[in-house]
Amino acid sequence: MNSYDVVDNSIHLPSLLRKTLTHLNKGKTRVEMKLPQLEFLLAKVDRAANRISFSIMLLSFSIILACIILGEAFGARSLISNIPILGIAVTIVLFMFMIVLLSIFRSGRF
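Structure for Ubiquinone biosynthesis monooxygenase ubiB, as requested:
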């Protein structure tokens, strides 16, 4: 940087400051930042969230099946005892489980 650059910058400095202050007063200030590590961190957080939701789905599937099997084993009879509730419940839970599983794998972050 030579003396000509210093003089040139000092000449343009007042007009540059005036433009900057005008933009600040009008609310037209724009800040642009690039954080490459943030994208990597967000991808890791998204992957962890997908794994946690997958684990919760597996746990809920296991709990629901255990409750249904125990209810059927101990003979909890109700008005709908003639309907094969175990088969219907397992079908519904498996369908919901497959939807969540497909959405996680489609995102590509598992």
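The mean pLDDT is 76.
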